[in-house]
Amino acid sequence: MEAGLIIPGRFPSLNDYIAAERKNRHIAAKMKREETKRVADIAANSDMPTFQKPVHVYFAWVEPNRRRDIDNIAFAHKFILDGLVDAGVLKGDSQKYVTGFVDLFRVDKDNPHVSILITDEFWE
């Protein structure tokens, strides 16, 4: 089984999160809570199934420009996976439930977003 989801906009980068944490830990906690809820709300209002088997997740990060390093962008895995768990799409985000992920990056200045494909079908 596989299913996809598109999350419009950008997520805070790792640098954004670190800056918030250094300023005040409550600001960083609020950032994580809001971004996780954003994903959970989008997933809950979609037709995403609940995955029973371990999954592999593909992320296509579409940024408006190339200013941010890809490792800073992909930090948002945390927000996305936690949001998918909160929405009931995934049972958990430990290695028992998520066996890996693939990241792809491209630029579209008019439509930044993250496309996610979740599959429980694997190759060896």
Helix-strand category: alpha+beta
Q: What is the highest CATH level, the class?
A: Alpha Beta
Radius of gyration: 14 Å
Identify low-pLDDT runs: none
Order of helix and strand elements from N to C terminus? EHHEHHEE
Task: Please give the domain count.
Answer: 1
Side-by-side strand order of the widest sheet: 1-4-2-3
Q: Give the averaged pLDDT, no decimals.
A: 92
- Taken as a percent bin, the fraction of beta residues is 25-35%
Summed up, the helix count is 4
Helical amount: 25-40%
Task: Compile the SSE list and pairings.
Layout: E1 2-8, H1 14-23, H2 25-44, E2 55-63, H3 70-74, H4 77-86, E3 98-107, E4 113-119
Parallel strand pairs: 2-3
Antiparallel strand pairs: 1-4, 2-4
Helix pairs in contact: 1-2, 2-4
